[in-house]
Amino acid sequence: MRRMSPETRHRIFSAVPVWLWPYLWLQLWALQRWIRASGRGLLIAVCPRTGKVYVTAMADAPAPEGTYA
């Protein structure tokens, strides 16, 4: 599972006002926990005015162990 690169994290946080950083951090932290638990990838968008994170696309569920692909 890939983590978000520092450059991507920097772009996200620099687009949002400073007082919204804790809210943004909490949303990204929760999404990262969900990604690790589910094994799916996400494509997200962040509103620069409100700091709200939106899921725009979700990867398919990983194949069950032991199945032929």
Rg result: 14 Å
Distance between the termini: 19 Å
Give the helices and strands as they follow along the chain.
HHEE
Q: Can you list the strand order of the major beta sheet?
A: 1-2
Q: How many E strands?
A: 2
Strand content: 15-25%
- Uncertain runs are none
- Please give the count of helices: 2
Shape: elongated
- What level of helicity do the residues show? 25-40%
- Integer average pLDDT: 89
Major sheet size, sense and barrel closure: 2 strands, antiparallel
Tell me what you see in this structure.
The chain has helices spanning 6-14, 21-38, and strands spanning 42-46, 53-58. The model has no long low-confidence stretch (mean pLDDT 89). The radius of gyration is 14 Å and the shape is elongated. A hairpin with a 6-residue loop joins strand 1 and strand 2 (53-58). With 69 residues, it is of the alpha+beta class. A two-stranded antiparallel ribbon has the order 1-2.
Attribute tags:
two-stranded antiparallel sheet; alpha+beta; 69 residues; 39% helix; 2 strands
